[in-house]
Write a structure and sequence with these properties.
By secondary structure, the protein is mainly α. It is built from four helices and no strands. The chain has one domain. Helix 1 packs antiparallel against helix 2, helix 1 crosses helix 4 and helix 2 packs across helix 4. The radius of gyration is 34 Å and the shape is flat. The termini are far apart.
């Protein structure tokens, strides 16, 4: 076993947890949409049952008003779900990057020191890591069934969650790279500014010292001439 295999297992677990979280978010979203659809249907039935006492225009206005309120609720539900999925993608991106950085650093140290400790660590840890992966996979499958049960449809929940996770993780990685690039540019600009100011200060000090030395020399010459 290599450290790459162990880090790959860790990333698989992180990805599975990301899918589980997105499935939970989708269960909340689909459940909310299903609930509001149920409310709309029951409200329309109740209004239509009052036909003898309500005009057609009033019934239509009441149903339209309820549907507009429902529309706002659904939009808010979708917006909140999208934000939550973005947060999950950002967490998965950072966690995966952390695992890769630690694995790469450990491999460099192990190779430089010629300890061969990672091989022994992998042999010791990999069986337990595989068990963790199996447990997480079961939880992932269960979360997919939860989404199907809540939505009332035979949707490919895990595939949908995997696509959403991939998209949000990709966006999070791009945003992280933009931030890192901006920070690097800002730091470089600040360094150039400090260096330039320091150079100017040194040059100004040197000029002032030189001018002072010339003045002292002129005074000394004048004093010697008068003597």
């Amino acid at each position: 076993m290599s450290t790459k295999n162990l880090s790959t297992v860790a990333n698989e677990v992180i990805e599975s947890y990301g899918i589980i979280n997105i499935n939970v978010i989708n269960a909340y979203r689909f459940g909310g949409e299903r609930m509001i659809s149920f409310v709309d249907e029951r409200f329309a039935d109740a209004v239509n049952r009052g036909a003898p006492t309500l005009s057609k225009q009033i019934r239509t206005n009441l149903i339209d008003s309820q549907q507009r309120v429902s529309g706002f609720y659904v939009k808010g539900l979708q917006y909140g779900s999208d934000r939550a999925q973005s947060a999950v993608g950002m967490a998965v991106d950072l966690a995966s990057k952390g695992v890769n950085m630690v694995a790469a650093g450990a491999e460099r140290i192990d190779t430089a020191a010629k300890l061969n400790a990672l091989e022994k660590l992998n042999r010791a840890v990999m069986p337990a890591a595989k068990v963790v992966v199996q447990v997480v996979e079961r939880v992932e499958q269960g979360s997919g069934k939860l989404v199907q049960r809540v939505s009332g449809k035979a949707v490919p929940a895990n595939a949908v969650a995997a696509r959403a996770l991939k998209s949000t993780t990709k966006k999070a990685a791009a945003a992280r790279k933009r931030v890192a690039k901006t920070v690097t540019k800002t730091a470089a600009k600040a360094k150039r500014t400090v260096t330039t100011r320091a150079s100017k200060a040194v040059a100004t000090t040197a000029t002032k010292t030189s001018n002072a030395a010339r003045r002292v020399a002129r005074k000394a010459s004048a004093t010697a001439a008068s003597a």
